[in-house]
């Protein structure tokens, strides 16, 4: 029977006892990513929390092959894997490049952009925990306005995060999607779909992080749901230039009402120094982006 949103692959590809933090959003996301892509997958990983989850050679908690790349070169490393598999006549294999926001928004953007320009046949996924979490919660291009990091110790971050979906749209690739581990069936379904498409596919994963964001480990799914429900992180697909909202975001658009962003930020210690002015700026930013997405989805 073909997999769909009502039937998830039951096999587990991550063994018990990984080195990920308790409550790690990446662990949930990665579990369902591998269920969707299955055994015939090679993962390319730059320095990141995912390296910690995988473990150090010769021990690993993951049962698919993976290679470690340099921080800046995950797009290039994955492109090399695609070329090697083509030479070996292995069209059955899927190459997954999985980077954090630092290895996507900042250090890794050049090699990703080059691969996307060439429409290299791989899936590039960014697990976005909105800072350099593996090295101590430093500010990244994905850190939201008003958040505190170890490199913004006195003031909060003064800029909004990059709109990376628009950056990837500019490359005219065939498939772009956003997903959240708080909505695992939506995540699973989009990775299954992406695996059946040729060319560069980009998937952006909202990845709550208890130590970096400052919330109880038990609340990872709750925080992830609130990110979607306040429209801080809308769920969407862009296929051949056509945008559509999915899952909970589609329901919110139909209802025409969403909770205020304060319900999301007040539960995270990283926003403890946020001013009222910044809160209003963040709400206005969320509203503008959301209104634009709803308009595009209705065209």
What does this structure look like?
With 299 residues, the protein is of the alpha/beta class. The protein has a single domain, classed as 3-Layer(aba) Sandwich (Rossmann fold). The chain is built from 12 helices and 8 strands. Strands 2-1-3-4-6-5-7-8 form an 8-stranded mixed sheet, with helices on both faces. Strand 5, helix 7 and strand 6 form a beta-alpha-beta unit. Helix 1 packs parallel to helix 7 and helix 3 runs parallel beside helix 5 (109-117). The mean pLDDT is 95.
Topology (SSEs and partners):
Elements: H1 25-37, E1 41-45, H2 49-54, E2 66-68, H3 74-87, E3 94-100, H4 102-106, H5 109-117, E4 123-128, H6 164-169, E5 175-179, H7 184-195, E6 201-206, H8 210-213, H9 220-229, E7 236-239, E8 242-245, H10 247-255, H11 262-265, H12 276-298
Parallel strand pairs: 1-2, 1-3, 3-4, 4-6, 5-6
Antiparallel strand pairs: 5-7, 7-8
Classified in CATH, the superfamily is Thiamin diphosphate (ThDP)-binding fold, Pyr/PP domains
Instruction: Tell me the number of helical segments per DSSP (H or I, 4 or more residues long).
Output: 12
What is the domain total for the residues?
1
What string gives the helices and strands in order?
HEHEHEHHEHEHEHHEEHHH
CATH fold category name: Rossmann fold
Stretches where pLDDT falls below 50 for ≥5 residues? none
N-end to C-end Cα span: 35 Å
Count of beta strands: 8
Strand order of the largest sheet: 2-1-3-4-6-5-7-8
- How would you describe the oligomerization state of the chains in this entry? single chain
Secondary structural class: alpha/beta
Give helix % range: 25-40%
Overall mean confidence score, pLDDT: 95
CATH class: Alpha Beta
- Estimated share of beta-strand residues: 5-15%
The appropriate CATH architecture is: 3-Layer(aba) Sandwich
The outline comes out as globular
